[in-house]
């Protein structure tokens, strides 16, 4: 009989309880004991929910306080030297957020995207004197905690191959020896779990599909040969990508008891499934999409599973989501304000577990046992396909008439720079920020009250005008050269636009974790996208009226809006991005017409959206860069186009960024030690660039000397005319008491540099 399985459950809670617990703890409103008690109750609630949903393989150790990679670093004593004098939660959160006290400033560890998702993980730092060894065994603790409630779980942990390849070493280490010690530490963990008779452990190796070399597969076989000795049964878990033939061959012979395949991102024939399952005790098929929020086509999936089941023993089959449900919201039944028609299309984590259970029951007891559920599912999908707003003739005609010249700026950057400088008259090393300024509880309350119609429009606008004026005056007083309006009217850089574009709808409870306590609520793209009216002109124009200095128009780019939304699944993503590009192009036209001379089109997800398989890179780069240029190429030569990117590894991607042809690009770089500068030693980036010198993801306040040194590092590979001065990212999540001194120091560092080069 097939079994229902889950790989991971959202950690934040249906009402973002984890966010509340974290922020209460960080703000001193809860002690360690209270924090532990609350987070334990949340874990138990989620285990009980999964059990009641009929899931037979329930994950544990999948609910970290901050990040699952950080948990593994703590588990195996992989603590960078600068944190070792700390302990407990103080140490744990210092690694994630940094530590700022009257006696010390400790920078946080770097964060980067978890493969091609919008979740951010802590990047492991490997040091010469590190010796991986099992620390406090929280994997065992979580298992025993669930067992107290008669819930049998399957612990889940990031595997050694993935952890090792995600890490960075800033000093020379013996990588071979380090990996061997790491594997031995994992083996010790598995031995301890076997000693208390844990039946299965899920080891996640998402690095496995990514076009590895032969020596990687040799290492995988050696690693799991050791790990499988005196161990619980190992479910070797891959996701996010198709396995190539070399990976499949390795997986077939790998000494593990079961394997999980992502059958949404990967296309595996029933014969391939049967071949892989031949020597295994179990094969887990991830057939329900763990990364989107649409109802699955259960009839289609069941047809595939039925053929697979005919080729192997039913007892071996586990039915599961494609990956952890970390990437979707918790419970669609909580959504009360969505059009009832659209609401039926949604499947959050709870509903996806229901789909897993329906498929499992159909395989085990026959499709007749779930006939009502299958019929209802097909009715919903048919209704979705026939929705009248899906396709707009006017938009389709416009897209068909896009010409090559619409995607190219007509003059070179060198010519444009001369015209822009004549117009803007900026100094060397111009100072700016990325867009948003701190959003206080009061501002968030005002936005919420306006949305709920508790305050009239004129009162709301007066408050936003006052806040915008405050932000403009603050920047002028600091000595900034290019200003921003602060974005106090915006809830989120994607959701804000989704609320104003046709083809989107917003949710109330569609929250997902981005990192730590940071949650985002992606808008939902369900139909063709059009811009009915200007979206940003009113507030940007108001800000510009307050100052003689240039104020940037602030937009989010087409690829990022798409990547950070839940996207319709009936047309190619490239087509969705082109529709968005046309909407942004129209907005840029209106901003320029309103007298805005600098327009920033943020693309922080540009690198993140790159396919994991290199064989698919060229196609993505072609359409994504074309979409950016389609959005930005309709402006005059003296209008300056900026873009911004963050959390990105650019060293193998710099040529694609060059193709965007933005006049100025700002990039997150301070937390990675300006590592992106390595790219410019081999590729001469032609346009202007602002490598971030203020890490806004940490409460630490960088001093002038630190930022000055980072700018000097940048000038080793950039010309002085190219270099801009800016933070890593927007300042929305920081407090004013952190932002004021940090930006003062940043402006002072730029002025110090100007005095050297004048």
TrEMBL record:
InterPro entries: Cbl-indep_Met_Synth_N (IPR013215), Cobalamin-indep_Met_synthase (IPR006276), Met_Synth_C/arc (IPR002629), UROD/MetE-like_sf (IPR038071)
The protein's required cofactors: Zn(2+)
Binding site for 5-methyltetrahydropteroyltri-L-glutamate: 19, 118, 518-519, 564
An example molecular function term from Gene Ontology annotations: zinc ion binding
Residues holding Zn(2+): 644, 646, 668, 729
Annotated Cobalamin-independent methionine synthase MetE N-terminal domain residues: 4-309
UniProt-recorded name of the protein: 5-methyltetrahydropteroyltriglutamate--homocysteine S-methyltransferase
Species of provenance: Paralvinella palmiformis
């Amino acid at each position: 009989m097939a079994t229902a399985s889950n790989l991971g459950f959202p950690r934040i809670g249906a009402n973002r309880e984890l966010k509340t617990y974290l922020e209460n703890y960080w703000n001193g409103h809860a002690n360690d004991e209270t924090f532990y008690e609350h987070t334990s109750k949340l874990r138990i609630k989620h285990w009980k929910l999964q059990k009641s949903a009929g899931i037979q393989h329930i994950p544990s150790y999948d609910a970290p306080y901050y990040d699952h990679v950080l948990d593994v670093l703590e588990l195996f004593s992989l603590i960078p030297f600068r944190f070792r004098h700390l302990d407990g939660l103080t140490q744990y959160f210092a690694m994630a957020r940094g530590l700022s006290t009257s006696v010390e400033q400790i920078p946080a560890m770097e964060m980067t995207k978890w493969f091609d998702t919008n979740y951010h993980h802590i990047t492991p730092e490997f040091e010469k004197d590190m010796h991986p060894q099992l620390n406090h065994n929280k994997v065992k603790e979580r298992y025993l905690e669930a067992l107290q409630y008669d819930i049998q779980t399957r612990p889940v942990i990031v595997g050694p191959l993935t952890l090792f390849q995600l890490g960075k070493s800033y000093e020379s280490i013996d990588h071979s020896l380090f990996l061997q010690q790491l594997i031995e530490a994992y083996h010790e963990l598995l031995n301890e779990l076997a000693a208390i008779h844990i039946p299965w452990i899920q080891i996640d190796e998402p690095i496995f599909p990514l076009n590895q070399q032969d020596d990687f597969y040799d290492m995988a076989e050696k690693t799991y040969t050791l790990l499988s000795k005196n161990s619980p049964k190992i479910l070797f878990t891959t996701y996010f990508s198709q396995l190539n033939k070399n990976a499949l061959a390795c997986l077939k012979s790998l000494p593990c008891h079961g394997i999980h395949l992502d059958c949404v991102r990967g296309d595996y024939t029933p014969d391939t499934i049967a071949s892989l399952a031949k020597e295994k005790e179990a094969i887990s098929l991830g057939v329900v999409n763990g990364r989107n929020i649409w109802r699955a086509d259960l009839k289609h999936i069941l047809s595939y599973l039925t053929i697979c089941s005919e080729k192997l023993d039913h007892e071996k089959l586990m039915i599961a989501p494609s990956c952890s449900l970390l990437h979707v919201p918790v419970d669609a039944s909580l959504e009360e304000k969505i059009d009832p028609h659209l609401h039926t299309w949604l499947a959050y984590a709870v509903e996806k577990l229901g789909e897993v259970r329906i498929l499992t029951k159909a395989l085990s007891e026959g499709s007749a046992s779930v006939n009502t559920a299958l019929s209802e599912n097909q009715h919903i999908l048919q209704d979705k396909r026939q929705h009248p707003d899906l396709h707009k003739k006017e938009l389709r005609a416009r897209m068909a008439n896009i010409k090559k010249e619409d995607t190219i700026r007509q003059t070179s950057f060198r010519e444009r720079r001369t015209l822009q400088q004549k117009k803007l008259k900026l100094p060397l090393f111009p100072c700016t920020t990325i867009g948003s300024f701190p959003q206080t509880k009061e501002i968030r309350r005002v936005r919420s009250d306006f949305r709920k119609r508790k305050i009239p429009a004129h009162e709301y606008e007066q408050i936003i005008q006052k806040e915008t004026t405050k932000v403009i005056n603050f920047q002028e007083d600091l000595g900034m050269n290019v200003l921003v309006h602060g974005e106090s009217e915006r809830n989120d850089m994607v959701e804000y636009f989704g609320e104003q574009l046709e083809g989107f709808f917003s949710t109330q409870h569609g929250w997902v974790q981005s990192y730590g306590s940071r949650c985002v609520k992606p808008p939902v793209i369900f139909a063709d996208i059009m811009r009915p009216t200007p979206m940003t002109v009113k507030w940007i124009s108001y800000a510009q009226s307050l100052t003689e200095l240039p104020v940037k128009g602030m937009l989010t780019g087409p690829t990022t809006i798409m990547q950070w939304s839940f996207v319709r699944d009936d047309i190619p993503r490239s087509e969705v991005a082109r529709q968005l590009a046309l909407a942004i192009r129209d907005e840029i036209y209106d901003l320029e017409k309103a007298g805005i001379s600098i327009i920033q089109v943020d693309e922080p997800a540009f690198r993140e959206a790159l396919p994991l398989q290199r064989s698919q890179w060229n196609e993505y780069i072609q359409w994504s860069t074309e979409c950016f240029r389609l959005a930005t190429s309709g402006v005059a030569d003296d209008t300056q186009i900026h873009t911004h990117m963050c959390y990105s590894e650019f060293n193998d991607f710099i040529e694609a960024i060059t193709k965007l042809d933005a006049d100025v690009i700002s990039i997150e770089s301070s937390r990675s030690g300006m590592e992106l500068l390595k790219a410019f030693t081999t590729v001469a980036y032609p346009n202007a660039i602002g490598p971030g010198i203020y890490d806004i993801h940490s409460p630490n306040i960088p001093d002038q000397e630190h930022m000055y040194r980072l700018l000097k590092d940048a000038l080793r590979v950039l010309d002085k005319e190219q270099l801009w001065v800016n933070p890593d990212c927007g300042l929305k999540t920081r407090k004013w008491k952190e932002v004021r001194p940090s930006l003062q120091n940043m402006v002072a560092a730029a002025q110090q540099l100007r005095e050297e080069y004048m």
